[in-house]
Design a protein that fits this description.
It holds the Pfam family MPAB_Lcp_cat. InterPro entries: MPAB/Lcp_cat_dom (IPR018713). One of its GO terms (molecular function) is oxidoreductase activity. This protein is mostly helical. It has one domain. It contains 14 helices and two strands; from the N terminus they run αααααααββααααααα. Strands 1-2 form a two-stranded antiparallel ribbon. β1 and β2 form a beta hairpin. The model has no long low-confidence stretch (mean pLDDT about 90).
């Protein structure tokens, strides 16, 4: 007989998985983790540890907040992604892309990359100030990649299930780069130091557009989740804010003080991530086939 605590644990795990992976979570899991064949990464690779951990939830929120600061990236999201009309669908597609390119078979991962590239070719327009953009622009793709990679890595270093050495942090950056380059970015960073330099090189281009402000409010104030789940979500969001660069927080009007990080953001981020990790462990995940490349 399942005890009440285990029942709660499974309920949380299954609810989160259905939101992130969709109603066909078992089918997707079988395709990603259960299909035999060569993979880019093995279960002992740093990227498998980071991208498979519950710290990705705070990391994902941080990445979204950071990406809003580039007006061209923000215009593309606002005009073409359907994040407001179908936020869970967008989350599921993003989660599937990360999971497939990290854990899936090489052939399946390559096919998904090509589909995303085809979509990018159709995404173009103008920012709120009339500046033209296209989603296939290598410079714009680099910004999206850098913001995501930095956010995922920093979230794991603060909230992950184990510590990363500086060498492992560099290894993660290097392992994340090839997929970004397959999407069309050029000469992506291979070390954390280069990643941070690349991110800071975009500072002259960053600003808070009206679309960015609207998106940040949507992410932090009106997330598309039930009220009962919002306290847990806001704990993850507090963790996400605490790992953002101070300059990004200032631009977005978010807390920047050390006391917020020490007493609010980092503790809440750690606690909520630990709870999610505990809950998600109750949801069966198939083992990753060993890398054969």
């Amino acid at each position: 007989m399942i005890n009440p605590l285990e029942r709660v644990r499974r309920a949380i795990g299954e609810t989160v998985r259905s939101r992130v992976a969709g109603g066909d979570a078992e089918v997707r899991a079988e395709r990603i983790w259960g299909s035999p064949g060569p993979r880019w990464h093995g279960p002992d690779d740093v990227i498998a540890h980071v991208n498979g951990d519950a710290s990705m939830y705070s990391g994902g929120i941080a990445a979204l907040l950071l990406q809003t600061l580039h007006p061209a990236a923000m215009a593309g999201v606002a005009g073409h992604s359907g994040y407001r009309s179908d936020p869970w669908g967008r989350l599921q597609r993003t989660a599937e892309f990360i999971a497939m390119t990290t854990f899936g078979r090489i052939d399946d991962a390559k096919s998904l990359v090509e589909r995303v590239k085809e979509i990018h070719l159709r995404v173009r327009g103008k920012t709120d100030q009339g500046e033209p953009y296209r989603a296939s622009d290598p410079h714009l793709l680099e910004w999206v990649h850098v913001a995501e990679t930095w956010s995922f890595l920093l979230s794991f270093r603060h909230f992950g299930f184990r510590r990363l050495t500086d060498g492992e942090a560099d290894e993660y950056v290097a392992q994340a780069a090839p997929v970004g380059e397959m999407l069309g970015a050029e000469e992506l960073p291979r070390t954390l130091a280069d990643l941070e330099r690349a991110m800071e090189s975009y500072l002259p281009e960053l600003r808070v557009s009206p679309a960015a402000r609207d998106t940040v409010d949507f992410i932090l104030k009106s997330p598309p989740i039930p009220w009962l789940a919002r306290p847990g979500y806001w704990m993850l969001a507090a963790g996400a804010i605490s790992i953002l660069p101070v300059w990004a927080r200032r631009m977005l009007g978010l807390p920047t003080s050390a006391w917020f990080d020490r007493l609010v953001g980092l503790p809440l981020g750690k606690l909520s991530t630990n709870v999610l990790r505990w809950a998600m462990a109750s949801v069966r995940r198939r083992p990753v086939h060993p890398r054969t490349t």
